[in-house]
Amino acid sequence: MASCASGADILRNLRGVAAVATWHFGQAAVREGLAQLKSGRSALDAVECGIRVVELDPSESTVGFGGLPNAQGAVELDAAVMWGPGRRFGAVAALRGIAEAVSVARLVMERTNHCMLVGEGARRFAIAQGFKPRRMLTAKSRERWKEWLRRQQEALASKQGPVEHQKPLGGEPSHDTIGMVAVDRDGNVCAGTSTSGFAFKMPGRVGDSPLIGSGLYADNKIGGAVATGLGERILRYCMSFRVVDLIGEGLHPQDACEAVVRFMVEDDSTNLDEQEAVLALDLKGRVGAASTKPGFQVAVDCGGEVCLIDAPHWEQFAERL
Ligand code: SD4
Questions:
Q1: Number of C-alpha atoms within 13 angstroms, CB side, residue 11?
Q2: Is there a contact between 271 and 257 (Cβ–Cβ < 8 Å)?
Q3: For residue 84, which of 184, 179, 16 has the smallest C-alpha distance?
Q4: What is the Å distance from ligand 1's center to 158 Cα?
Q5: How far is CA 265 from the centre of its chain?
Q6: Rounded distance from Cα 234 to ligand 1 centre (Å)
Q7: Active-site residue, 138 included
C-alpha cells in the first residue's frame, strides 16, 4: 500500500478520482469500492461494500464489530447512505447487535418509506431483513470497557468526579468514522458513513454520522462530502452540506473544505482540542479534505493505487484563506 506525500497541494491536483474515504482504514474501503466500480457496479454498491469491509474488521475499535461500546458495555452503531439519484437517504442510529450497519441503512432507504430507524426498531428491521444478530464486543473491546469502568469507579471513590465519557484510554482512538464518497461511471454520487461513535458514550447518544447534512451529503449535480470527529460540533454546523453547497457555488472541493473548517473555528473557538474533519469528492473527481486539528488522513484512489494523504489542518491554512 503506497503512502503518498502529504498536503493540500496533492489533494488540489488530483483529477478523475472515483472513490475516497476517511482515516487509515479508508484504504481498505477505497480498494473494495474501486473493485466494485471496475466491475461496473454503482457508487452505492461501492460505498456500501467499501464501508462494510471496515465494519467487519474486528481490529478496528471505532466502527462495526469490535467497536468500543457505550457506558453500559453495549455497542451502538450509527450509519447512513445518501444516494445522489433522487437525493435518497437511509440511516440507522443506536443499532445494537448487527455489525453491517451501513447495509441496514441502505435497506431503510430502499425497502421502507422512512429515512431513519433507531434503536430496537432498527435492530428488528435488520433481523427481519435477514441480518444475523451477533455479540459485538471482542475480547479487546470488552477489556477496554472494563478498564474504563474501573477508572470511573476509582474516580468516583476518590471524589474526583466521573471519568469523562468520550475520552480515549491508552492511546487508542476513541472515535473515528469511516466515511466514503464515490462517483460511478454513470456520474452518480454516493456518500456513506458508519461508526460506533464515541467510546463509552451515554446510551442512546447519536452523533453526526447518521444525520443527513451533518455526517454526510450527496448531490448528483455536485458531489458528496462526509465528516468525522466530534459529532456534537459537526451537527451544529451541518458540516457536510455546507461543503457540498460551496462546491456547488463553484469552489474547488479543497477550498470548500478549508472554508467550512475556517468558518467553524472562527465562529466558535472554544473546545478546539477536539478534532472535526471533512472529506469531499466532486463530479469531476476533484478531492478536498481539511480538519481543525492535525492528524486527519484520507484514503484516495490515485489511479491504480490507494494513497493515504495527510489532510491540511486549520493552522496550516488559516493564513492563506
Ligand atoms: C460521532 N462523528 O459519533 C462521530 C465519531 C467520529 O472521528 O467520527 N469520530 O460523533
A1: 29
A2: no
A3: 184
A4: 31
A5: 20
A6: 9
A7: no
Angle between helix 101-111 and 43-55 (nearest 10): 150
pLDDT, tens only, 31-64: 999 999 999 999 999 999 999 999 999 999 999 9
Ranges of residues in the chain whose predicted pLDDT is under 50: 1-5, 168-172
pLDDT in tens, 68-88: 999 999 999 999 999 999 999
Q: Which of 22, 62, 177, 195 is catalytic?
A: 177
Query: Length of the chain in residues, anyone?
Result: 321
pTM over 0.90: yes
Q: How many angstroms separate the alpha carbon of residue 292 from the centre of ligand 1? A: 14
Q: What was the pLDDT predicted at 173? A: 52
Pocket lined around ligand 1, Cβ cut-off 6 Å: 175-177, 195, 197-198, 207-209, 228-231, 234
- Angle of helix 119-128 relative to helix 101-111, nearest 10 degrees? 80
Pocket test for ligand 1, best of 178, 208, 238 (most atoms within 8 A of CB): 208
Set of cell numbers at residue 33? 469500492
Q: At what angle do helices 26-38 and 43-55 cross, to 10 degrees?
A: 150
Pick the atom of ligand 1 nearest to 232's CA.
10
